[in-house]
Amino acid sequence: MRTVPIILLFAVVFALPVLAYDEVDTSSATASAWSEYTPNYPASNALDDNYGTFWSNDRSVNPTTDGAGDWFQVEWPDDVDVCYIRTEGRSYQSGYYSIPHEVRLTFSDYSYIDFEFEDTTQDHYVQEYYFDADQKTTSVVDFGFLSYFHHVWEYVQYYEVNFYYELNPDSDPPYVADMEPTDGESYVPIDSDIVFHCVDDASNIDLDTIDFTAHDTTLSDGRAVSADASIGVVFGSTVTIDGDLDVDDTDPMDVICTFTPDDPLPYGDTITCTVAAGLADVIGNVMVDDFVWTFNTEDSPGLVYQSTWGAIKAEF
Fold this sequence. Notes:
Blueprint: E1 21-23, E2 30-33, E3 55-56, E4 70-82, E5 84-89, E6 98-107, E7 112-116, E8 126-130, E9 136-150, E10 157-166, E11 175-180, E12 194-199, E13 212-216, E14 224-225, E15 232-233, E16 239-240, E17 243-248, E18 254-261, E19 270-275, E20 291-296, E21 304-306, E22 312-314
Antiparallel strand pairs: 1-10, 2-4, 3-10, 4-9, 5-8, 5-10, 6-7, 6-9, 11-12, 12-18, 13-16, 13-19, 14-15, 17-18, 19-20, 21-22
């Protein structure tokens, strides 16, 4: 039974990430609408898994100019879990149609979510509603049309309405992988870029949470030899390496980050790279610890060192 929602509005629109999900069974569900355009286009046509049939409203029953107050509803005899809804609409004759612009989804606990869509001129348009990581447990999903994109006709028509639930909700944080140079690598050319991947196996990376730094930490263990001293001198500091970080999010679940230093890296030093804790995916799973790796740069081609047999050698 359709009811009027009274709970606080949450204005959100989500894009469906790649998740494991399965279709909700609608064989026991019933569909209803504020009107049906003749007995040939009942609301049940939108649940029959047959693209040869469709539901259509009767615009003469409620010929509003904005669609406010019109609705389509699906009800199950028992609660089901829903995280994602896909509706495929049908254009009216000669390409004229009326597409829902704003839709309010209302559930059996009287909570609701508002969605706003962009216009489209495709003959077969798809509108998708995704509830983020939180599945709704409900026996009713009510589509309340708040406004339309009008294209001459005021008909709303659905080929099919499908509901899905998550098989394995994503609760794993993103991680760092495929670093270049690799952890512990030696003799790295001083003109090298630093590359790493921010990866999530189920959801997109939140690009705003990528925080990378590189430091020359050769002296950070607290002891180095001064040129004019005969004993060790404690420094206990690191040097920040300045540069630009390029982020390639062509694949939003495997974001490739390339750090290009402003100047060549120092010869024969230890470089420590850090992706800071807080790296997150778009549904809020967060990497809780810093991810750190180190590598050593190549020796200077003019390095002079004491050989084991006591003579001075030079590398060129």
